[in-house]
Write a structure and sequence with these properties.
Number of helices: 17
Oligomer: single chain
Strand order of the largest sheet: 1-2-3
Shape: elongated
Structural class: alpha+beta
Length: 456
């Protein structure tokens, strides 16, 4: 029971487990086959570990049986349950409710947080560093590196606690770096993106938000026709970028949209003198905006704003940040926005999401038994009722969880100090909920607290 290593060759996290009912298990220990006398049986539990002691009053027989091995004086089942919860991005609260409903012996919440802080988070930090170094090395070996970055806030609204900035190798479609900032590090949540991008030594790409600006404008009185151009204008943006060979050509093609919404298809710019489509007649006509009207003037001001044109000049015709948006959606499976995590807890879940994304970024398209490619029809909320046909990907893999388990049981649990030292190098900001009480208010606050706890 006190050994630090498992005696058999198979490590405990690889052994298959079974659900055994307690009364069926205890029945095996109540009678000794030799003297056929009833035994005195006692049992104790340590989390998921069950220990059974037997004693025979007739032949002085006694034994001490344990349901699982120990690893460095830690029940292997307790540690693996904690690891399985965190490594899969699950919630301990939900897993605990499930085990309680099934009447399966589990672990306490303090036990989970203890193992998470001392063993699991250092394991994730170490494994992510190894994979990050490999990704950077491979990216550099392929020549010039094309990076894209974007920020994600951890909660809806403008008062986010955390902001994470993701840097991605757009050529390889791999997450290459993640920076996490707590709002009180930079004054408030609005300054988080600038701080995160500087930590990641990257730069923010142009953020357009054209659809949102058009939606907001179309809600004004007499401006409803602007909303009818939303899909066409957004498509024109991507078309301008993907069909151009220079920044000047992108700007020329994009600027033509200001004429097109007024049914003008010849333009003054020699790089794009006229629209390439056939004459629009019949069903192909649009809800043209009349020149000099409020709708036309306000819409044109958005489309030709100097800041937008400056960004258009630098837009990439080949690479885009859709992969980052997909990664941000994946993060929700590892850290829901309505759940509060510690700084290290939040960072390790972001790293888990990155490892999952990088492992599955190159998945092939799924196919039927007959070999036909599979597709699905989806209607995202931002499409406002419109649908999109998407290729179905093959099922994702979770090989990174096996690597984390191997690292945890082979190395970290045996000698955790180097991994704790590595994790300790991380700068952790002060807790956001910390409060400062003025000295002249301390006595009043103390009286109020004592009165509250007395009443409750």
């Amino acid at each position: 029971m006190n050994c630090t290593r498992v005696s058999n060759e198979v490590l405990p996290h690889k052994v298959t487990k079974y659900i055994v009912y307690g009364d069926k298990l205890l029945a095996l220990f109540k009678r000794r086959p030799v003297c056929t006398q009833s035994l005195v049986v006692s049992q104790t539990t340590i989390g998921t570990l069950l220990r059974i002691k037997q004693h025979c009053a007739y032949c002085e027989y006694s034994s001490d049986w344990s349901s699982q091995p120990m690893v460095n004086n830690i029940p292997a089942g307790n540690l693996q349950l904690c690891a399985a919860v965190l490594f899969t991005g699950s919630s301990f609260c939900q897993i605990s409710k499930f085990l309680d409903a099934f009447k399966i012996q589990g672990i306490s919440e303090p036990c989970f947080h203890k193992h998470q802080a001392k063993l699991l988070i250092p394991t994730i930090n170490w494994q992510w560093k190894i994979e990050q170094d490999d990704i950077i090395e491979n990216a550099i070996a392929d020549g010039a590196v094309t990076l894209g970055g974007d920020m994600r806030a951890d909660s809806p609204g403008h008062s986010a606690k955390y902001g994470s900035y993701t840097m991605m190798d757009l050529k390889a479609n791999r997450v290459i770096d993640i920076q996490l900032v707590q709002s009180n590090e930079v004054g408030n949540s609005q300054w988080m993106e600038k701080e995160e991008s500087s930590r990641g030594k990257g730069c923010c790409g142009p953020v357009f938000g054209l659809g949102k600006k058009m939606d907001a404008l179309s809600k004004g009185k007499g401006l409803q026709d602007v909303g009818l151009w939303r899909k066409s204008v957004v498509n024109h943006l991507y078309r301008s970028a993907t069909t151009s060979t220079s920044g000047e050509e992108v700007v020329a093609k994009w600027s033509s949209v200001a004429n097109r919404i007024q049914n003008i298809h010849s333009h003054e710019n020699t790089l794009f003198p006229s629209c390439l489509h056939e004459p629009l007649v019949g069903d192909h006509t649009r809800h043209w905006l009349k020149p000099s009207t409020a709708a036309c003037e306000k819409f044109t001001a958005i489309l030709l704003s100097p800041r937008l044109l400056k960004d258009m000049h630098k837009i990439s015709p080949e690479y885009h940040t859709s992969g980052i948006e997909c990664f941000h959606s994946l993060i929700l499976k590892f850290s829901a926005k309505n759940v509060v995590f510690s700084f290290k807890g939040m960072l390790c879940r972001l790293q888990l999401a990155a490892m999952h994304y990088n492992e599955n970024a190159g998945r092939s398209q799924a196919s039927t038994a007959a070999g036909d490619l599979r597709y699905s029809i989806v209607s995202p909320e931002f499409k406002h009722g419109e649908f999109t046909v998407r290729a179905l990907k093959s099922n994702p893999t979770t090989g990174y969880i096996d690597k984390l388990m191997e690292l945890l049981f082979h190395h970290v649990v045996e000698n955790p100090q180097p991994y704790l030292d590595f994790c300790g190098q991380m700068a952790v900001p002060e807790k956001l909920c910390a409060q400062f009480i003025r000295p002249d208010k301390e006595e009043a606050v103390s009286r109020h607290r004592s009165r509250f706890f007395k009443n409750t």
